[in-house]
Amino acid sequence: MFSKLWADIQKGKLASVYLLAGLESYYIDETIRRIKDKLEEGEVESVTIDLDEKPVDLVIDESDTIPFFSSKKLIIAKNASFLKATDKTKEKIQHDLTRLARWLEFPSDTSVTIFIAPYEKLDERKKVTKQMKEHAVYLLAETPKEHDLAVWVQHEVAGFGKLIEDEATAKLIELVGLDMLHLKSEVDKICLYLGEETTITASLVEELVSKTLEQDAFKMLHAYIRHDVSEALSIYHDLIRQKQEPIMLVALLASQIRLMSNVYYLLKKGYHSGQIAKQLKVNPYRIKRIVEDRRNISEEALLKALYGLSEVDLKLKSVSGRRERFLELFLMKPL
Fold first, then answer.
1. 40 phi/psi in degrees, rounded to 5
2. Which tens digits make up the pLDDT trace of 53-87?
3. Would you tell me how many other CB atoms lie within 10 Å of the CB of residue 301?
4. What pLDDT digit, counting tens, does each position of 148-195 carry?
5. Which of 74, 115, 130, 213 makes a 20 to 30 Å CA pair with 36?
6. What CA–CA distance (Å, rounded) separates 149 from 161?
């Protein structure tokens, strides 16, 4: 999809109208960048219009106005909300969709107009949606599936003349998540850090990728479940040195345990990992790790751990003294 579009752009085969829909901003931003770069081989006038604030008539007027300083004008029309199902009583702007339909049949050849619809779904029942998809170059920006995303990461790394181990690819996606813009940023950072070295390892990813508090809490719980007290305490002490509050860490650990319980419940219902990740809106690699942990902990042990954390939470809220000791003692007790 996007690879063919980008190849056409590189060859100078630019359409008059594009419709870029979907939630994966990497594909949308990258497509706009490539179109701009191709147009800027000469000079280009660029106009951005927010359709949540301005009517679509303004987009049409801009497109039909002959550019003064370049052969082509670029118009970026953001938030084309008239393409999705909406409550008309909440619409702030009235768009002349009849005029838009007429214009789509004969758009200006002195401009490139990009409509951006950053929504998961368009309303296929609407006449305007069918007209846009018929007359514009339409592409849906979706995050690739797990395997395809790993291939994409490897391709981005190869662009720097580097290699990345499979384990390192999995670790990178696990730590960063499915946000392709964030993944691209981390790939760029790691490849630049490598210098003359050629291979990205899992340990290098672990060292360089910034971790969130939630990820550290998950890693701590993972060590606790594996009965690796030393690792669990090491992570905990690092978090305490970073001035993290024990009561916040207790809440995060409890949240992770509830997530595990939900995953195991859905597994018993016959869901597979991909379905669970979609249902719970969680990183598939996180679900994969939880499924792998299932053989190390029973549902009864999870409930016991959750009860233990509730006791720690009560002590933190009612007992004075060295507050960090309460959670530390919990991590030292076997499940």
1. -80, 5
2. 999 999 999 999 888 777 789 999 999 999 987 75
3. 14
4. 889 999 999 999 999 999 999 988 988 888 888 889 999 999 999 998
5. 130
6. 19
Helix (H, G, I), strand (E, B) or coil at 173: helix
Tell me which H or E stretch contains 21.
strand 17-22
Cβ contacts of 12-17, under 8 Å, gap ≥ 24 = 12/38, 14/38, 14/39, 14/72, 14/112, 15/112, 15/136, 15/137, 16/107, 16/108, 16/109, 16/111, 16/112, 16/113, 17/104, 17/107, 17/112, 17/113, 17/114, 17/115, 17/135, 17/136, 17/137
78: phi then psi, degrees, rounded to nearest 5: -85, 155
Q: Which amino acid is at 187?
A: V
Q: Is 222 helix (H, G, I), strand (E, B) or coil?
A: helix
Let me know: does 81 contact 73? Beta carbons within 8 Å: no
Side chain identity, residue 152: W
- How many Cα neighbours within 13 Å face the side chain of 260? 27
